[in-house]
Design a protein that fits this description.
This is 2-amino-4-hydroxy-6-hydroxymethyldihydropteridine pyrophosphokinase. By secondary structure, this protein is α+β, with helices and mostly antiparallel strands. It contains 3 helices and 8 strands.
Length: about 160
């Protein structure tokens, strides 16, 4: 089993419920076990400002799925939940990103590991630190040493979801 961290985000169609639906679906995913989830955080949109604020979280999973198979599974969850890409960095009912896949590094057309922008996003680093405060990234840097450039309006909305 490989430990992976998934970033979850939503800002339309009941974003908190969309995150909960995605977590329940991740929990039921074959060859995968949901270990824990961070609190839910609210943040201003990173892209176009004429959209609602986001709800974000990070989930820790254990999986035997290969990275691209996991990506396919996450994209299937997004599609099932009705995700439609309206515009780059625009509003979405659900967004699921593989942040880290063990200590693996990968740069392909479909997937970059670790996620190429995770260190620049407080709405990723803060919830990830909550559930993995001692995490060391594949390049040897400790997560606790990262200071994201994006320091938007991030606030805790809910404690971790226990009963998924």
């Amino acid at each position: 089993m490989t430990t992976v961290y998934i970033g979850l985000g939503a800002n339309i169609d009941g974003p908190i419920e969309q995150i909960h639906i995605a977590l329940r679906t991740l929990k039921a995913l074959p060859e995968t076990q949901l270990i824990r989830c961070s609190s839910l955080y609210g943040s201003a949109p990173l892209g176009p400002e004429d959209q609602p604020d986001y709800v974000n979280a990070v989930a820790e999973l254990e999986t035997t799925l290969a990275p691209l198979d996991l990506l396919d599974a996450l994209q299937a969850i997004e599609k099932t939940q009705g995700r439609i890409k309206h515009r780059h960095w625009g509003e979405r009912c659900i967004d699921l990103d593989i942040l880290l896949y063990g200590n693996e590094t990968l740069n392909s057309e479909r997937l970059n590991l670790p996620h190429h922008e995770m260190a620049n996003r407080s709405f990723v680093v803060t919830p990830l630190l909550e559930i993995a405060p001692d995490l060391t990234l594949p390049d040897g840097q400790r997560l606790s040493q990262i200071q994201p450039e994006f320091d938007g309006d991030l606030h805790k909305l809910q404690s971790p979801v226990i009963d998924l």
